[in-house]
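Entry 14. Structure prediction run on the chain below.
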Amino acid sequence: MLKNALSFIALVLTMVVIFIGFENNFVSSFDACISQKAPDHGKLGLQTICTVRLIDRHAGFFGMLAGFIVAFFTFTLWRSTDKLWKAGRDALEATERAFIFIDGFNYELTTALDAKIEPANLLERYRSDPGFYITRFAAQPKWKNIGNTPTKKMTIRVDWRGPLGPVPPDYVYKNPPEPFFLAPKAIEPSVFIEMPGVQALVDYGMNPLGDPPLMFIWGRADYEDIFKRPHFIEWCYCVRLDRHDGKKLRASFIQWGEYNRTDEDN
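Output returned:
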């Protein structure tokens, strides 16, 4: 605002200087006025009197010029006010809108030890340690809204693949989008995703031959904020298993690839 005001003042002063130079050098009636006035008026007085007479003689033109200047100033002021309003609106939307991201995973991992399966019914390599034989693995994404307002028209999709073959480049989904809702500051899990085949990760750890098997889970959310602006988030994680404490298998999820992005990254 201050910058625009200073620019306007500079423009007005420039126009005044140009006008004074023009009337002194190119307007014959102004020269005649200067020559007819008594010298006791002083140079500044003569300049002022003759300028007033010149403006009065061409009142229509100078009225139009004044109108143009006022219109230009009004337009400049409107633009400055509009920019301030947009900046305030953008700041409000950024602080108040819904903002969704993936907040980790719950998971269910059971083994032959949990299911109390007789060791004799297992493969020989697992009979001495049934805790290495996985009977079920399922992952449950947790969605979080860190914004101060709820989501609108939110849908989610989740899919997985493994242990063999790469993640499809287009991250396809077998199922259609499902409606979902997140209140302000809320964390809500979606359904558990059954991921059979995770046993291959354990087998490779016990006998690492060939290419390592990989288990992936990925998802996407589309939603609107209360300002009716569309947003999305995409994510992909790779499943890891470990048993560092020698007690029980545990799963971790490692962010994977370029699919981890939001609409603000475009």
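The chain is about 40% helix and 25% strand.
Filed with the rest of this week's runs.
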